[in-house]
């Protein structure tokens, strides 16, 4: 350190200057100012008539003086002029020095001498925080030695931060304790021989123990045992220094998780968040640990009228935490519902609960008790990390607290979707409940399923046409009863066999062997080439159809359900003829019949329900197939996805089916609305008729709840297309055909009746 002669002074000021080297061309200037005290002192540095980049901090001393500490770089020859100025009109003070003559390294003891505790904290924050970044000192050996000396002056005998668990991706969990007065730890740094580095993530502070200490945990990169170093914690109320302990045998996460430390709810939840933020492997490890050693579920059940409750739904997604359960509060004693998070105070959530009537299972005496069911979405919980057993408390007006904890909850998107669909009974579900509680969770589940969908596998049976006129895409999900009849009908159609490409898409890949064997046998029996696209995982109707379209080569696409059977040849070219460009037709659909010959579909239209939601309806549903208005070819608002034919290029251009709709409903009308938005029409072609054994496969979906899924999908359609549907229904087909109720006994027998008995015989053949 170089002590400079006093500079010329003004108004009795007597400055003391010390200049030292931090590292290479980085210097530290300390200018201590005697009385009278300046109000806002600052220092400007210039070298060779150019202002030097610098950073400074003003430190109050215990005796009333001020010390201005300045860090700057000077790489060229010549003197540096330091100008001390103030807002007072007394004038500036200048000092000149040549940094090239300075060889002494900065001395931390001299720098902090007489400094107040606040001054030391201010200087420490500058030395650890922004100065190393500004002046490139984070890996400078000289600066690192000075900084270590400085920190050990502040903390003469720092406590230990020890690695307690080995995580994943080269991460470890550090654990230490800090005084209970410490709060708001914002940033953590590590100082060792390799440099000064800011650690990612935020440390977690636990609750204070009886000795007045708070546990602190932090996830850091694993380091060699000999590395050691210091852990520096910047908090609102001060700065904490800890020695990083060297340890050869860091326990596995499984060993640590089995210990008492991991039984604390907040710590477990925080670590789940940290693991999920590391990688997908970390997220899976977090799920595994929670399932391997779950916490005991907590339920409050009583036979009297005192409050009781159960939390049986608590699934996490990026949209938030979806809670569900019931409580009984006959005397109105409930004050608040509190959700515990990994950090901080519990969050009140009572106002976010959606309520509905619930009946509890009968007790030993056979009585059925009424309760209040509830569901709520809490945004931002655990940042979407899979916390499987969050804790909720019911706080009573008396101050009594009832703790609730569910059994370990599901973490995969399919299971979460199923739980969300069952969270609120369909008869009690409202648009508001959908909007704020159910729909955000379903949206995240659909997004997760879309993004995690593996690439499908394709198997070929025979070689189809080189340039198919049309690709027929048929999704399969668990119901394969009609494949023999369908393939037989396709094979008997000469035009189909010569010019169509047949693609089955298996959306239940667990049945790949069974279905491949079946299709292989049908190919040998009928000689009709076909492909089997096997989804990597169940993705729903939209995803399956889109995967089949991506694998197709035809100029046109025919999306057909697996339970749709043609009753004659030539149905495909008859539909394709209506797609001629001059017609500006974007899609066509045929007449669809039930197996008893009555009408299932003669075009699709929209109609509001009593709540204003647009629902899908089929013209003349249930009427005899010969009903005259159903035999008029005409534009319609839409056609069903059970059989829709359109140009492949158009399907790709508008994005295909939208998989935001849950499981399999309303995505066909959404597709039709996108076609209408593109300025193209949709035509119903009654001269082509097929049999449709409606919804045979969707009823097999384990998580299909007709009421909730359908309500969600109609709500989503209305939210997206309300104005467009209003305009479309006002403009198309004036006057629009009215849906009529069939009169019993007026259904004529069709020329060809595809009865269930015939189907059973054909399937068994």
UniProtKB/TrEMBL annotation:
UniProt cross-references to PANTHER family, sorted A to Z: RHAMNOSYLTRANSFERASE WBBL
Source organism phylogeny: Bacteria, Pseudomonadati, Pseudomonadota, Alphaproteobacteria, Hyphomicrobiales
Name recorded for this polypeptide: Glycosyltransferase
One Gene Ontology term of the molecular function aspect: glycosyltransferase activity
Enzyme Commission number(s) from the entry: 2.4.-.-
Entry annotated with the keyword Transferase: yes
The organism of origin for this protein: Bosea vestrisii
Leader sequence residues: none
Pfam families xrefs: Glycos_transf_2 (PF00535)
Keyword set includes Glycosyltransferase: yes
Protein keywords: Glycosyltransferase, Transferase
Domain Glycosyltransferase 2-like span(s) in chain numbering: 471-601
Coiled-coil regions, chain positions: none
């Amino acid at each position: 350190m170089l002590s400079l002669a006093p500079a010329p002074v003004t108004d009795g000021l007597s400055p003391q200057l010390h200049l030292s080297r931090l590292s290479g061309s980085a210097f530290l200037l300390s200018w201590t100012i005697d009385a009278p005290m300046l109000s806002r002192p600052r220092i400007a540095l210039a070298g060779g008539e150019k202002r030097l980049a610098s950073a400074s901090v003003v430190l109050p001393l215990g005796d009333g003086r001020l010390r201005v500490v300045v860090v700057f770089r000077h790489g060229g020859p010549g003197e540096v002029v330091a100008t001390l100025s103030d807002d007072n009109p007394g004038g500036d003070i200048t000092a000149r020095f040549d940094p090239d003559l300075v060889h002494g390294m900065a001395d931390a003891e001299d720098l902090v001498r007489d400094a107040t505790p606040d001054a030391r904290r201010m200087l420490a924050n500058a030395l650890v925080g922004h100065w190393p970044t500004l002046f490139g000192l984070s890996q400078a050996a000289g600066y690192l030695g000075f900084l270590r000396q400085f920190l050990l002056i502040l903390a003469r005998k720092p406590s230990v931060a020890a690695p307690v668990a080995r995580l994943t991706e080269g991460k470890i969990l550090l654990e230490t304790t800090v005084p209970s007065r410490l709060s708001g730890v914002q940033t953590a740094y590590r100082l060792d021989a390799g440099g000064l580095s800011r650690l990612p993530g935020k440390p977690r502070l636990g609750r204070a123990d009886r000795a007045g200490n708070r546990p602190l945990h932090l996830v850091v990169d694993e380091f060699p045992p000999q590395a050691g170093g210091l852990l520096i914690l910047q908090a609102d109320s001060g700065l904490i220094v800890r020695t990083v302990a060297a340890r050869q045998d860091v326990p596995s996460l499984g060993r640590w998780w089995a210990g008492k430390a991991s039984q604390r709810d907040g710590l477990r939840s925080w670590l789940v968040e940290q693991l999920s933020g590391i990688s997908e492997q970390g997220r899976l490890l977090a799920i595994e640990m929670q399932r391997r050693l779950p916490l005991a579920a907590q339920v409050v059940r009583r036979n009297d009228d005192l409050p009781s409750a159960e939390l049986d739904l608590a699934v996490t997604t990026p949209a938030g935490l979806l809670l569900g359960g019931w409580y009984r509060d006959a005397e109105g004693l409930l004050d608040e519902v509190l959700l515990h998070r990994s950090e901080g105070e519990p969050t009140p959530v009572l106002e976010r609960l959606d309520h509905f009537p619930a009946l509890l299972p009968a007790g030993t005496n056979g009585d059925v008790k009424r309760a209040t069911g509830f569901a709520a979405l809490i945004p931002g919980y655990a940042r979407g990390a899979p916390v499987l057993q969050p804790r909720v408390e019911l706080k009573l007006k008396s101050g009594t607290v009832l703790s609730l904890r569910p059994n370990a909850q599901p973490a995969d998107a399919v299971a979460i979707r199923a739980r969300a669909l069952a969270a609120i009974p369909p008869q009690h579900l409202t648009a508001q409940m959908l909007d704020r509680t159910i729909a955000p969770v379903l949206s995240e589940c659909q997004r997760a399923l879309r993004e995690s969908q593996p690439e499908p596998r394709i198997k070929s049976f025979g070689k189809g046409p080189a340039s198919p006129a049309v690709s027929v895409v048929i999704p399969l999900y668990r119901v394969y009863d009609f494949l023999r009849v369908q393939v037989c009908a396709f094979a008997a159609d000469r035009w189909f066999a010569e010019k169509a490409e047949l693609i089955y898409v298996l959306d239940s890949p667990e049945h790949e062997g069974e279905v491949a064997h079946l299709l292989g046998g049908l190919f040998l029996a009928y000689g009709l080439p076909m492909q089997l696209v096997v989804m990597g995982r169940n993705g729903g109707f939209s995803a399956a159809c889109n995967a089949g379209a991506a694998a197709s080569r035809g100029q046109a696409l025919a999306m057909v359900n697996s339970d749709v059977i043609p009753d004659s040849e030539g149905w495909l070219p008859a539909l394709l003829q209506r797609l001629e460009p001059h017609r500006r037709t974007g899609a066509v659909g045929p007449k669809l019949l039930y197996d008893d010959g009555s009408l299932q579909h003669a075009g699709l239209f929209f109609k509001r329900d009593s709540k204003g939601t647009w629902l899908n309806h089929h013209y003349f549903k249930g009427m005899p197939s010969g009903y005259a208005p159903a035999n008029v070819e005409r534009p319609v608002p839409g056609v069903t996805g059970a059989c829709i034919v359109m140009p492949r290029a158009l399907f790709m251009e508008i994005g295909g089916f939208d998989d935001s709709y849950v499981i399999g409903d309303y995505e066909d009308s959404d597709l039709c609305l996108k076609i209408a938005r593109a300025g193209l029409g949709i035509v119903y072609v009654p001269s082509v008729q097929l049999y449709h054994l409606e919804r045979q496969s969707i009823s097999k979906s384990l998580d299909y709840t007709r009421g909730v899924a359908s309500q969600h999908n109609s709500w989503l359609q209305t939210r997206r297309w309300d104005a467009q549907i209003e305009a479309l229904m006002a403009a198309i087909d004036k006057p629009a055909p009215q849906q009529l109720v069939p009169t019993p006994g007026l259904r004529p027998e069709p020329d060809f009746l595809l009865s269930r008995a015939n189907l059973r015989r054909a399937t068994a053949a």
